[in-house]
Amino acid sequence: MELEVRHLRVISAIAEGGSLTRAAVTLRMTQPGLSAQLRRIEVMLGGIIFERGQSGVVPTPFGEMVLTRARAILPGIDDLLADTVRATRPGGSPDRIRLGSVGAPLLADLVLAVRSVLPAATVSTRGQYSQSPFLDDLATGRLDAAVLGDNPGYELPPQDRVVLRPLVTEPVFALLPAAHPLALQKEVSLHQLLDDDWAMPRPDSDRSREYWATVFASMDRQPRTPYEAEGRQLVEIVRAGLAVSFCQATFIEVPGVAVRPLAGSPVWYRHVLAWHDVGQFAAHCDEIVSRVGAGYLAVCARAPVYARWRERHPDQARPCGAG
Questions:
Q1: pLDDT digits (tens, 9 = 90+) for 78-93
Q2: Nearest residue to 300 (alpha-carbon basis) of 321, 314, 285, 286
Q3: pTM of the model
Q4: Does domain 169-267 have CATH number 1.10.10.10?
Q5: Rounded Cα–Cα distance for residues 213 and 220 (Å)
Q6: In the 8-state DSSP scheme, what is residue 116?
Q7: What is the mean pLDDT of the chain?
């Protein structure tokens, strides 16, 4: 986890509100989620920023130093962002569509949908694992649309000027070494996997790790997670036989790893398409959503394990707008 501008905004909001409860309302977060975010920031910076009491929070001497720097930095950042919006969106820039995506299988279909509906537009993309910067960029118009995601009970917070359209909620599958004994089964028990070491992405603002923790807590156990990794690195740790992990249902097996459904489908993930509420994308959003939904069905068909799961569960994981 690296320090980001949003972390400075969190610290400033807590200081201005004088309590985590008031700051959570301002930031459109839950109070437990904000508390967890603050703890991660304090661990990252190496000191306690606020002293907690019954009447609220008070900055520590260390926190005063951090807040002084944050208050000096944020106005300049806000001015820079305002200037870049004006510079990059003259007249709304109707010939340019900027897209973003967290780790999801829908970005290519989103690009194809935009190109089909808006053939004169120049399309660019960028990707990252954290969702919060994308929401900020969508709200200010620095991004036109993005593929995001969330989990049950940990949905994306509403944001001014941002439309959030859920596309589909799908089960989360297990990612195993190909030589793992459970890879011989058609589906695996999450209880059994808790005997293994796990590889997981670092905790971040999408709150997936918090959601997973609640799922594990319902089984009165938490996994051993000695390996923190994302993307290709995570797959390589699993391939080496060092750990197991979660993966999206549309993940296609590669040599050395096995994808298996979890018995009873205890873990779910929701794909969400988000866009700025004004502009060319917003004007054609329904048609674009329909095309992305159809593209998702094609992705499902190319993922054999997920395709078989969908045959057994025809009434689940049906994308909105796909016809």
A1: 767 766 665 555 444 5
A2: 314
A3: 0.72
A4: no
A5: 10
A6: H
A7: 88
